[in-house]
Amino acid sequence: MSLRIFISHGAGRDAGVRAVLDNIVPRLTASGYDVFVDVEKLRAGDEWHEVLYREMYQCDAAIVLLGPETVAAPRWVRREAEVLVGRFKVGGLAAVLPGIVGAVSTAEARKQGFDALLSIQAATWQSPDGERPAGADTLTVADRIMAEFSPQDLRTANPGARDWALRVARYLESARRRSPSSLLDAARRLGLTDEELVHVSARIGAELFLSHRMLSGGIREELPTAVEWLKPALGADQLRQLSAEVLPSWVDQESARRFLPAAAAAPQPYDGSPVLVFNAYEEWTVEQYVRRAVCNAPDTYSFGALERGLPDDDASSSEALEAACRTALRQVFRVPPRMPLNSRTVQPKDGTFSYLVLSAADHAVEDLAQVTRSLRDDFPWLIVVVLTGGAEPGPVARIADTVVVVPPITVETELAAYHLKQRLDAVVQDSGTFPLSEVS
Predict the structure, then answer these.
(1) Contacting residues for 367 by C-beta, under 8 A, at least 6 apart
(2) Contact assessment for residue 321 and residue 371, using Cβ atoms and an 8 Å cutoff
(3) pLDDT class for 228, splitting at 50, 70, 90?
(4) pLDDT tens digits, residue range 20-33?
(5) Would residue 154 count as lying in a domain?
(6) Which end of the chain, C or N, has fewer beta carbons within 10 A?
(7) Is the residue at 411 inside a domain?
(8) Which of 146, 176, 196 is the last residue of a domain?
(9) Rg (CA), the chain
(10) Angle between the 182-190 and 159-178 helix axes, to the nearest 10 degrees?
């Protein structure tokens, strides 16, 4: 999932190019990039033309290193430069970074077919006094190239978390294309340090760097204001989707893992999913925990909540509760109104988790125990979440196969999270409460 960097070079002929290459490749790798250097990546038996073309068309950014010997006999480097610059000019590549190493004549380089490459600002060594200290050339070129790469966050090996960060990064990339200063503006409002702002200014990887910071967790009061500063550079749908992506990041990751069947193993053996006991007040909070658990990936969960209170009829409380639950499950399992709700119409779907939320305040513990067992006998994969409304688990925790979500959420956190949602909703609306003219 790392961003892919293609390096075109003539290191076999230019010692200076080899020095720059040896300097930047380990630094790029350490910064989280997947670097393709033909000498290292081509294997015996590979059709090298085919491999190189594939890498050039699949990379996210490129570096072209030119030394005097490479320019004198351009060969394949010139062909690579033409392909890469062509992709860059049509918007298919984030950047092409030319690195000029040693005594290269730009006139000769243009004569040899590098005119299009040299029209891009190059990383080169320039001295105001004309002196060239030993090693300064290659080190300066390497440092200037590296300044264009933001370090990527590889602290998590969770593919879902990487996908989540990449989705957010795509919205940031769209904003940056329309308004080059928008990322830096948003990063400042998010409260990033001066050192972090340097990385947001980089040409490559800045979107993913800022994405990780936006998803870094906790209640971030600055988040709505940061999103607000992206508003002029994003369409209404993009802004709404970005807000929905970043909102669940407030949830504690370890607590959210309890909402996944594998992590929420019941104390006693049971061949289905446990009943989760959660001390939150709102169904919305449960869905946020679920979203955080699945890294907000689309089509990974179905969710339903029982309406508070039951209709007044002649059925016993447990019968009325079960009837209401099965009505709600039609929405969870997407079963049409006239079809029966049974094993023929409902089957578990790989990669998708199903949740039903009940409130302990509305039902007797005996009824909850009876109904949840009945539902899970029919649908063993169903995850039932019982809200205790800020109270201790108490008698609810004695229902068979229950797992208490820990650490418990505090009332203050749940309220702050809801206010965060309201502020992000206000940003999405045209009547947002944070107009740019009023933000300092």
Answers:
(1) 317, 318, 321
(2) yes
(3) very high
(4) 999 999 999 999 99
(5) no
(6) C
(7) no
(8) 146
(9) 28
(10) 120
Q: Which of these three, 111, 146, 181, is where a domain ends?
A: 146
Considering the domain architecture, whether residues 421 and 381 belong to the same structural domain is answered as no
Residues 178 and 317 in one domain: no
Q: What is the pTM of this model?
A: 0.81
Q: Give yes or no for residue 127 having a pLDDT over 70.
A: no
Domain that includes residue 258, residue range: 253-406
Which letter does DSSP use for residue 432 in this model?
Answer: -
- The per-residue pLDDT for range 94-104, each reduced to its tens digit, is 889 998 888 88
Total number of domains constituting the chain:
3
Interacting residues of 440 by C-beta distance below 8 A, sequence separation 6+:
none
Which residues are CB-contacts of 67 (< 8 A; sequence separation ≥ 6)? 10, 13, 14, 15, 16, 17, 101, 102, 104
For residue 232, give both structure tokens: 């002029």
Query: Both 61 and 91 in a single domain?
Result: yes
CB 270 within 8 A of CB 377: no
Confirm if 302 and 355 have CB atoms less than 8 A apart.
yes
Looking at the fold, whether 136 and 272 belong to one and the same domain comes out as no
Looking up tokens 């029919």, which residue turns up?
Answer: 378
Q: pLDDT (tens digit, 9 = 90+) per residue, 384-421?
A: 999 999 888 888 888 888 899 999 999 999 999 999 99
**Residue in this structure with the two tokens 């590889």, named with its chain if needed:** 154
DSSP secondary structure of 232-299: GGS-HHHHHHHHHHHGGGGS-HHHHHTTSTTTS--SS--SSPPEEEE--S-HHHHHHHHHHHTTT-TT
Beta strands 4-8 and 34-37 are parallel
Domain-embedded: residue 96: yes
Closest to 23 measured CA to CA, from 131, 122, 130, 101? 101
Residues 246 and 304 in one domain: no
* Domain assignment of residue 151, yes or no: no
Stated as kind and residue range, the H or E segment containing 301 is strand 301-305
CA atoms within 13 A on the CB side of 184: 11
Contact 99, 141 (CB under 8 A): yes
Closest to 228 in 3D by CA, of 438, 416, 421, 435: 435
The count of other CB atoms within 10 Å of the CB of residue 235 is: 11
* 9 and 70 Cβ atoms separated by less than 8 Å: yes
If DSSP codes are grouped into helix, strand and coil, which group holds residue 368? helix
Residues 172 and 107 occupy one common structural domain: no
